[in-house]
Target: Peptidase M14 domain-containing protein
Amino acid sequence: MRPLFYSEKEAKTHNIGWQRIGDQIKYYRNNQGQEGRHYFSLTWTFQFPHNKDTCYFAHCYPYTYTNLQEYLSTINHDSVRSKFCKIRVLCHTIARNMVYVLTITTPLKNTDSRKRKAVILTARVHPGETNSSWIMKGFLDYILGDSSDAQLLRDTFIFKVVPMLNPDGVIVGNYRCSLAGRDLNRNYTSLLKESFPSVWYTRNMIHR
Model:
């Protein structure tokens, strides 16, 4: 849980990206705030390596919407993986960003797909939880790989994957909420398609 640090000068001169830093790291409950609620503080000490540098801190390795789009583009342009991984747009968000859905399975020789059960995976419903995107990338690297186990899984199941449920929140830097200011993880039963399009369309896909 050590904070992550990125220095533009370190990246330019030594090709060093995000790195764990900090000493005397403490996370503790501080004084009582309004209405009797407690607030929490995260503190650490750190000495910046350069003067006149631009630096960033993060609690987990970042994974952006652009990272996802670039990753999906490499799959699309791969002559092998694109045969068993079809990338479509599930819906558009409030800000008109695309929510992608991947269908991963060995192409069927006939039209009867009912013998294969579906496995549905989603990630990044909370924008600040970037670790879920890295886990999803690891899963996709594996299931789209050339191992015999991955081949068997693709032969046996149809995988429906929504790698980023909340791209609006990711883009604007929210920690938990969508652009509507709501936690999508608490709105899977909502009928408000316009307010929560990604979870509405994901739920619809599961029903289908």
Remarks:
- The chain is about 30% helix and 25% strand.
- The beta strands are 4-7, 19-20, 23-32, 38-45, 55-58, 85-92, 98-104, 117-122, 157-162.
- Residues 63-205 form a domain with the Aminopeptidase fold (CATH 3.40.630.10).
- The two ends are 40 Å apart (CA to CA).
